[in-house]
Amino acid sequence: MRFSGLRVLKEGLSGNKGWQAHWRDAQPKPAYDMIIIGGGGHGLSTAYYLARNHGITNIAVLEKGYLGGGNVGRNTTIVRANYFLPGNSEFYSHSLKLWEGLEEELNYNVMHSQRGLINLFHSDGQRDAFARRGNAMVNQGDDAILLDKAGVRKHLPYLDFEQARFPIYGGLYHPRGGTARHDAVAWGYARGASERGVDLIQNCEVTGIDIEGGVVKGVRTTKGPIKAGKVGIVVAGRSGQVAAMAGRSLPVESHILQAFVTEGLKPVIDHVVSFGMGHFYISQSDKGGLVFGGDLDFYASYASRGNLPMVEHVMEAGMTLMPMIGKAKILRSWGGIMDMTPDGSPIIDKMDGIEGLYIDCGWNYGGFKAVPASGWCMAHLMATNTPHEVAEKFRLDRFRTGINIMDEEGTGSQHNLH
Question: N or C: which end of the chain has fewer CB within 10 A?
Answer without folding.
Answer: N
